[in-house]
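Q: Could you fold this chain for me?
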Amino acid sequence: MPKSCPRCQRSVPDEWAFCPFDGSPLDPAHPGHQRAAKLAGFEPRLTRFSGMVLSGRYQIDSYVNKGATSRVYLANDLVSLDVVVVKMFNPTVREREAMRRQFAEEATALRAIDHPNVVRVLDAGEVDGAPFLVMEALRGQTLGDYLSQKSSLDANEALRIAIASGLGLAAAHRAGVVHRDVKPDNIYLVGEERTVKVIDFGMAKVEGSTEPSAEDLVMGTVQYMAPEQIVNEHVDARTDVYGLGVVLFRALTGHLPFDVEHQPDMLGHQLFSPAPPPSWLDDDLDTNVERVILTAMRKDPENRYPTMEDFLQDLAREQPQGWPIRKSPDLYRPTSEMGRAAARLLSERFRLPQ
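A: Sure. Below is the predicted structure, expressed as structure tokens.
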């Protein structure tokens, strides 16, 4: 009977003593087995911060990875004795006020969200002028990693993951938070049960915060960005509806709706091109599910589901109905001079209709 690796959760033949993928000891009696279980899902490396104690409580153990605005570390909570994740603002950008504000807003907003499908934020603080978050350490893998192994998912599994992700995002929306970076890499599958957690709200927008200006960065991942993000205009729950629609498209078909390598081309497609029917890539796809995906990915936010709850309710129906077109044709219409200028630039570059 195969064993399960305490760290990567993969099945390993019973006669093996160590996992061939990450070297973790498979015998529960081995002194390294418990530590491997605590580090599940991470690839830690020693760092110059190893041993540093934050807020007198969180001792940095090792470096995990980095993002656009922050670095992620594993740490030991000296009070609870749990392994936690510390997300620390990058020193190179800590002086940029907009990014500092973004990080502070993330901390405040996430601590207000209490939902089983959203990663838990346990604490927040600051060290040497750099703010940090303390979060629960999740054990498993991202949906992005899972899809890299399986290419596409069967409909039941894809819908389960999409609905659970949507429930977490709906909870965030009720707390006034728009994620802005919904993608497989920010959907975490915990343990063998693959419980879903939405993670990394580092690009989130909090209700009541200032609207984007020409100096602000465009937030998101191009392959999953809604048109309003492309031109740096107002985002709301419908922006995350678009992103989750792309995630569901990718999970069911094994492909992105706009599968091009050149990033500027991707920007043009996301802004101007209608999403292709996913059934073009999967002949067996339920036409009702396809209707939901194409509704979620409409260009004009007014034509998408108004809320994440509306999206989920339709997806859960035996025969989803989609959502009526309110503005025809379904095109994104910039609402600011900055947005119009960006759309004109892309239109001229790709010779696409505005």
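A (continued): Residues 300 and 333 are 7 Å apart (CA to CA).
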